[in-house]
Amino acid sequence: MVIRTDEILSIVSKLSDESGLKVTVHQSVKGGVVAGTACTIGGVLLGPPGLAIGGAIGGCLAYVLGNGKFKPVSRVISHDMKNEDRQQLVQSVRRIVADLDATDGMQLLVLINGNAALKGRVITEVTNFFQNQLNMAIL
User: Fold this and answer.
1) Structural domain for 32, as ranges
2) What angle do the packed helices 105-113 and 83-97 form, to 10 degrees?
3) Which of 63, 115, 128, 137 is close enough to 24 for a disulfide, judged by CB 3.0 to 4.6 Å?
4) 16 CB neighbour count, 10 Å cutoff
């Protein structure tokens, strides 16, 4: 199977978009800290009603601070990744699909989409790559 690197990256991007994979860019933790802090302060100042008020205000503040900070994996692949990282990702996916008989990217995409277990393996590999190689959290 001789499938070009850009075709594999395109397939990975399409599969990650279909699966809704997004890179959190560590905003979830920050949002949790903001919401938790506001909830705690509200509880200390106003008691039980303050917990609800502080939680609501903290949640809204966390939303405002984190809005737009979650990027689709496909965007990270196409815009933010270094070339070396793209090559490593392609090699990781190639190991999974090496035994498939496909001559181009479209055939490979059809084969992967037709096999739920294989599609799951590719998505898992992409998730693991982003978490382990790039130290990015995936949502």
Assistant:
1) 26-69
2) 60
3) 137
4) 24
